[in-house]
Every structure is written in structure tokens, then in C-alpha cells.
Amino acid sequence: MDNKQISQVLQEIGDILEIKGENRFRVNAYHNAARSVLSYPKDLRTIVDRNPKDLEKIPGIGVNMKNLIYSLLTDGTSLELERIRESIPSGLLEMLRLRGVGPKKVKLFYSELRITDLKGLKKAAKDGMLATLPGMGEKSQNEVLEALDEHSKFDLERVMISEALMEAEHYIEYMKKCKGVKKIEYAGSLRRRKETIGDVDLLVAVSGKNSKEVVANIMDHFAKYSEVLKVIASGDTKSAVILGSGMQVDLRVVDEDAFGAALHYFTGSKEHNIKIRDLAKRKGLKVNEYGVFKVKTGELITCKEEKTVFKAVGLPYIIPEMRKGQDEIEKAKSKKLPKVVELSDLKGDLHLHSDWSDGKSKIEDIAKTYQEAGFKYIAMTDHSSTVSVANGMSSERIQNQWKEIDKINKKLKGFKIFKGSEVDIMKDGSLDYDEEILKQLDIVVISAHMHPRLSKEAQTKRIIAAIENPYSKILGHPSGRLINKRGPMDMDMSKIIDACKANNVAIEINSNPLRLDLIDVYARMAKDKGVKIAINSDGHDANQYKLLKYGIFVARRGWLTAKDVINTLDAEHLSKIWE
Ligand code: DGT
Ligand code: CA
Ligand code: CA
Ligand code: ZN
């Protein structure tokens, strides 16, 4: 477990205690510890490896909490956690995942109406019972119904790619220590960079001369990983486990001579594999996880490297991100696959927050961090005035910020800070600053944070009105969705993309793994319609330039080249695209 996951467990325990109506101080102790762990700069694992007692030095962590964290880190779970979880109906925890429903409301529903799960909650809301509870009412009842509706559309079995990638990388690091592991890679949806992952598929290559014992030892090593909660399958070539985080990891062990074929097969997608097999069949070939064979003679053609699988069926290499089983095979046949954008193509980041609004870092520190990481520019885009929850900036404050930016820019060499803003789109589609401010900004990212529930028609009209504002430059996180937390706004994306084209407005791929908005399908649609894309971090901390790789994943799945992405341009050329 990493700090974030430990923090989530502490938060969960606090929530359960609150639902149970336990002493406020005990509840707060867990919630404070959760916050403290989340913002702690060092990985708790490294502390435990050195000296577990040092955990007590973290603010808000006492002896009890230290023991709990120690168990979480070494066993992936703890007795205390399991006991607390079992002390309330499991459906109550699910209710906590509803938008606008916290421990206080769950406690109210449970103690007053004996509601123990989502089904019961829905019934009570439909029967008008929730509205009768103290502090509730018709409006709150409707909000619960809407939250239930939204929740039913999420697939909570799937995790964000950032979480899956981190778990997979740690697991691989651990597996590499095992004797006999010649190669190891992740396959499946993770390798294809899907935005959410069902389970992680690991593939290990062993030398063909290896005995059964070596493979058995690898399977054993796999099952003994400290994060493993439960082994659900263990065989000669296949194993599967569930980790403390709830994620499933499958392992397959193959001969190193068949690694390429297996990697292709287990990378999928299933739809892509089916199309490859059909293509092979027409050439008198058979493709499976062991290799490419001649049907007539059974002769093995190739299987050692993945690229030779494509070669054998007469195709150039197709990157995993494109293997969706759509038109990638036809396009590959006619040599029409684009060379897609890479992380190293990005020269800057055009959506960032500093401590002038709701970010954590100082502008100067952000600039330095980016410059050290090899970038050439950033745009400082703190929130506009209306977003008071995020400490949005008045017209006066933003002008003070410009003075600071000018000062820092003078000091920097080979790096530029653009003056920007993430300007809120108001309900009527107007922007949250006057022309006087807008015209002085280099980068105007327009974003909708409020009014997500307008009708499709009204929402589309509102967003297009904002796009038509002559000062708008980039449409930020267009749909507003948060993966597994908030659905996308109802709007006509095709019309919005057309409006961006007509008004020379770029669209953002927001790299925050919780957003990844624009989605890949619309990224490709935008590209096909000639609309430019910006891949931005929307960082709230200097180090969040590291999130940009997730935006790159989406761009690659959307077939974008470096030319389609505006922040691959130099600073000088960037400003010119809006002239
Ligand atoms: P996920 O785990 O739901 O995010 O998606 P995947 O794509 O990782 O799916 P998974 O884990 O069930 O299987 C991994 C890969 O194995 C899949 O992408 C393609 C391959 N595969 C699995 N089952 C089949 C199958 O029945 N036929 C074919 N052709 N390939 C399969
Ligand atoms: Ca998978
Ligand atoms: Ca799997
Ligand atoms: Zn935003």
C-alpha cells in the first residue's frame, strides 16, 4: 500500500466510527491521521523498512495507529480494519460513495429508517420517507435520487489507470527479485492504457530449459507478495491473486521463446485479437498465445518478439494503445497509421494552479520544477473570481499576480511563464472576467465548474457561447466528469468540437487520472475535424507535471501526433496560433 491507500483506510475507519455514533474525538483522530498521511512527503513503506517506530513521528499517529499502519504495510490488511468493517452492514459503506452523502447522513438513514443498502435507500427516497427525516426535505431527497442514478452508471469494479499502474510497477519490481524470471511485463488493458483497469495481467518469461521447480518457485514468490490478500488460483502456468486494495492480478508464465506471441495475445484487446486471427486465417496462418503457425504443416513461424507477430501477418507494428479492434488493422495495411505523440514531445503545460488560488506551490517553485524536468514554459492559470471555494482571484489580485510573474520571468533563462487564467464559464455562457482582464491574458482556459445539470440543449448552447468569446483559447476539461465519482455533463460533443474549430479554440486533454477528459474517442474526432489539442496537467502542486503521461496515454489512444498538440510548440510559435 502507498500513502494514499493508507490514508483511504484511515478515512474509512473514521467514517465507520462516525456512522456508529462513536466518540467524536476518536472519529477525528482517524480523519486527522488520514489527512496527515496523505500530505506526508515520504513513502511510509521506506520508514517501516528502516524503523517502524518512526511512524509515531508523523503528526497525528500514535501507538495504535502505528500498529494498524504497520499491519497494512506488511500484510495488506489488519485485524482491526476487518473487525471494524464487519461491525456495520457493508451496504452502508457503499452509501458513502454517493455524491453528497457523508457519514452523518448514512447514520441518519440507518438509525431512523434502518436502511442498510442502496436498494433500501432508493425505495425510501421513492416512497418520500427520506424527506421526512430531520434536516432533510424534498430537495435533499431528490439529490439522493440523482446521486443514486449517477452511481448506478459507474463500474466500480474498475480502478483508475494511475492506481493500477503503480500497483503493477511495484509488483514487477518485487517479481524481478525471483530466480528464473527472465522477463516480466504487464499486458492487458493496462498496456493498452485504458483509462480504467479491470485487472492487471502480468506475463513472465522463463528459459525453456527451466525445470518445473523453477516455475513452481515463481508461482510461490508471486503468492507471497506482501500486498496479497487472497490467492484465488494457483496452477502450473497461471495464478491469480487479490490485493489489499481489492485489485486482481493475473500471472502467466511462458517460455521465453513464446514471449512475443503471449505478450501480443494477452495485451488484447479481444476484438483486436479476433481481427488479427481472421487476417492470419486468410493467409493460411494460425495465431495464438504460443506463436504464428502455418496451418497446413503446423510449422512455427515466429513467436519470440511481439513485432514479428505483426510481420508474419503482413502488418507494420501497431502500438498497444491503438489495439481496439476498430480500424487500426485496415489503416496499418495501407500504411496509414500516424506516428503518435510522446511525452518527450511536450514543451510546456498550459493549465496549472499555484498558491494564489487552490494550488499548493509557489509560482517560482513550479517554474523551477518544470524547468528542471526539461520543460520550456508554463501558463499560470489560477481560478477566476467566482470560484470562491477554490480561492478564485478578483480582477485586482490577478493584476498583482502578473507583477509577480513579470519579476520571476526576468530571473528565468530559457523558460517562460505565460499569464493565464482558468476562467469559469457562467450559466449564460459568459466568462468570469471583464474584457479589460481577458485581453491582457496570454492563455485563457475556459472551464465549466458550476451548473453541470442543465439540459443537453442548454448545456451545449452555454459551452458554445463561451467558445465563441473572442478571448477564449482552450476549452478545459470539457465534460467535467470524474471517473467513478461524477458523470459527464450532458452535451453534444460533436457540435462543441465544431464550434472549437470555427473559433480557433483548442480543446484540453486533462491529464489528471481522475478526469482524463477529453476522452480518446473525442480526441480522435477533434483531430479529424482539424481542432488542436492541449495536453495539460491541471496541476495543483509543482510535481504534478508527472501527471502529463496520463494525458499522453489518452492522446495516443486518440491517434494524435505531435502536430495535433499545441504544447509541443516552442513558446514563440505557441502565441502565434491565436493571432
Ligand atoms: P480489463 O482487465 O477488463 O481491464 O481488460 P483486459 O483487456 O485486460 O482483459 P482481460 O484481463 O480479461 O484479458 C487480458 C487479455 O487477454 C485481453 O485483452 C485479450 C486476452 N484474452 C482474454 N480472453 C480472451 C479470449 O477469450 N479471446 C481472445 N482472443 N483473447 C482473450
Ligand atoms: Ca486485465
Ligand atoms: Ca485478466
Ligand atoms: Zn478546473
Topology:
Elements: H1 3-19, H2 24-38, H3 44-50, H4 63-75, H5 79-86, H6 90-95, H7 103-113, H8 118-126, H9 138-152, E1 159-160, H10 161-175, E2 183-186, H11 188-191, E3 196-197, E4 199-206, H12 212-223, E5 228-234, E6 238-243, E7 248-255, H13 259-267, H14 270-282, E8 285-288, E9 291-294, E10 300-302, H15 306-312, H16 328-333, E11 348-349, H17 363-372, E12 377-380, H18 395-411, E13 416-424, H19 435-438, E14 443-447, H20 456-467, E15 474-475, H21 493-502, E16 506-510, H22 520-528, E17 533-536, H23 548-557, H24 571-576
Helix pairs in contact: 1-2, 1-7, 8-9, 13-15, 20-21, 22-23
Bound molecules: 2'-deoxyguanosine-5'-triphosphate, calcium ion (CA) (2 copies) and zinc ion.
Describe what this molecule looks like in 3D:
By secondary structure, the protein is an alpha/beta fold. Helix content is 42%, strand content 14%. The chain is built from 24 helices and 17 strands. Helix 1 (3-19) packs antiparallel against helix 2 (24-38), helix 1 (3-19) packs parallel to helix 7 (103-113) and helix 22 crosses helix 23. It is globular, with a radius of gyration of 26 Å. It starts with a helix and ends with a helix. The model has no long low-confidence stretch (mean pLDDT 94). It binds 2'-deoxyguanosine-5'-triphosphate (DGT), calcium ion (2 copies) and zinc ion (ZN). One calcium ion binds next to helix 11 and strand 4.
